Amino acid sequence: MYMDPLADQMMLQFNGVSVLKKANIYFDGKCISRLVLFQDGSRATLGVLFPSKLNFDTKRRETMEIVAGSCRVRMSGSDEWSTYEAGERFVVPENSSFEIEVQEPTEYVCHYH
Amino acid sequence: MYMDPLADQMMLQFNGVSVLKKANIYFDGKCISRLVLFQDGSRATLGVLFPSKLNFDTKRRETMEIVAGSCRVRMSGSDEWSTYEAGERFVVPENSSFEIEVQEPTEYVCHYH
């Protein structure tokens, strides 16, 4: 029985996945992320953000699930900042970008669609 | 066919594992680690260390596999510092401790025996 990765959202862990040993370290260590590969071929990254204001581009549509901490997010083309906390998520369109600001270590799962 | 986690060492990823969504952040962000659970019940953590000198205690014997970067290590009770680079590993006895110093972001897999 295979679970939809997003359905795992309430769960504390992903099961039956592959995880890369090598992490991705961006923005001088303000963002550390690790790729997880699901059985159905989909992907997600498990990330940690340290206090900073960062800009991310997207190729594919992404669902950002906040696991710990909180963040303010501004989508490209918008002047509005929205706040998201642990347990909440937001969707970023494909071929877009978003600004994210954190004041405390904040953890996320980024699901790529 | 199940692979021994250490045999995976040359491999770039662990397959068929569980990974916790929540990371562990220690020493004010100088150490970020994430727990991986293997099918045979064994565990490992995937970690990132940022430039610092840190001391870790061990309960169980551990094999520290360096994935990226390099580190200097001093086992408790020894005055000797040894250097380990990506692809190398060292073993820390149970109920012991070690000091580890990194000058650059360094990544490891810690296998718990």
UniProtKB/TrEMBL annotation, chains A, B:
Species per Swiss-Prot/TrEMBL record: Caballeronia udeis
Protein purpose: Catalyzes the phosphorolysis of diverse nucleosides, yielding D-ribose 1-phosphate and the respective free bases. Can use uridine, adenosine, guanosine, cytidine, thymidine, inosine and xanthosine as substrates. Also catalyzes the reverse reactions.
Keyword Transmembrane: no
Membrane spanning residue stretches: none
Keyword field: Glycosyltransferase, Transferase
EC number: 2.4.2.1, 2.4.2.2
Superkingdom as given in the UniProt entry: Bacteria
UniProt-listed InterPro entries: Ppnp, RmlC-like_jellyroll, RmlC_Cupin_sf
Catalytic activity: thymidine + phosphate = 2-deoxy-alpha-D-ribose 1-phosphate + thymine; inosine + phosphate = alpha-D-ribose 1-phosphate + hypoxanthine; cytidine + phosphate = cytosine + alpha-D-ribose 1-phosphate; adenosine + phosphate = alpha-D-ribose 1-phosphate + adenine
GO molecular function: purine-nucleoside phosphorylase activity; pyrimidine-nucleoside phosphorylase activity
Gene3D superfamilies: Jelly Rolls (2.60.120.10)
Similarity comment text for this entry: Belongs to the nucleoside phosphorylase PpnP family.
A Pfam entry, by short name: Ppnp
CDD domains linked to this entry: cupin_PpnP-like
UniProt key word Glycosyltransferase: yes
Protein name: Pyrimidine/purine nucleoside phosphorylase
